[in-house]
Amino acid sequence: MTEIPILLKSSEICEKVGVTKSCIYRWINEGKFPRPLKLSPTCVRWRESDIIRWLKEAEVPSGDGGSQSLSTSELPRRLPVLPVRKVDAEVLQAQVKLAVQAAGGTTALARALGIEHAALYGWKRIPAERVLGIEILTGIPCCELRPDIYPPDRFPPLPSQTL
């Protein structure tokens, strides 16, 4: 008997992966994320098995413009915990400033992330999809950059040799 696959909505994908819907679709266009099944003109779903396979093979951007594979033992540690914790907005804004300083300025951080520097001025907090890249670039642990989605008790800093 054929097993019926579990299908996930885009909101469930965003929650599991910890990024926005626009990021998911950008990754699809870049060939970095599984394409959804089109069930109707206005309804798409992803096979859970495709997402699990992608998570096991996930890559994060590195500071040198390439990418760095996450080991499967490290992967669950790096995915954000949901639901998120409440953290003061001022703390999150301070973490943006800390990341900018550690990277050598707004332009240097934007260039390393491959985005326009003007985009950084609109950040009230570091976007979830940028946390791991900034952690790799600056050495600031994800639990300090976004303690609301990477609680320090569950996400201690990585050893320095993996950064």
Task: Kindly describe this structure.
- The protein has 163 residues and is mostly helical.
- The chain has two domains: 7-57; 89-162, 434 Repressor (Amino-terminal Domain) (Orthogonal Bundle), CATH 1.10.260.
- 45% of the residues lie in helices and 10% in strands.
- It has helices spanning 10-17, 21-29, 48-56, 75-78, 89-103, 106-113, 117-121, 128-138, 142-145; strands spanning 7-8, 37-40, 43-47, 59-61, 67-69.
- The relative contact order is 0.13.
- Residues 60-65 and 68-78 have low confidence and may be disordered.
List keywords for this structure.
two-stranded antiparallel sheet, 2 domains, 5 strands, 163 residues, single chain, 45% helix, elongated, 9 helices, mainly alpha
List the helices and strands and how they pair.
Layout: E1 7-8, H1 10-17, H2 21-29, E2 37-40, E3 43-47, H3 48-56, E4 59-61, E5 67-69, H4 75-78, H5 89-103, H6 106-113, H7 117-121, H8 128-138, H9 142-145
Antiparallel strand pairs: 1-3, 2-3, 4-5
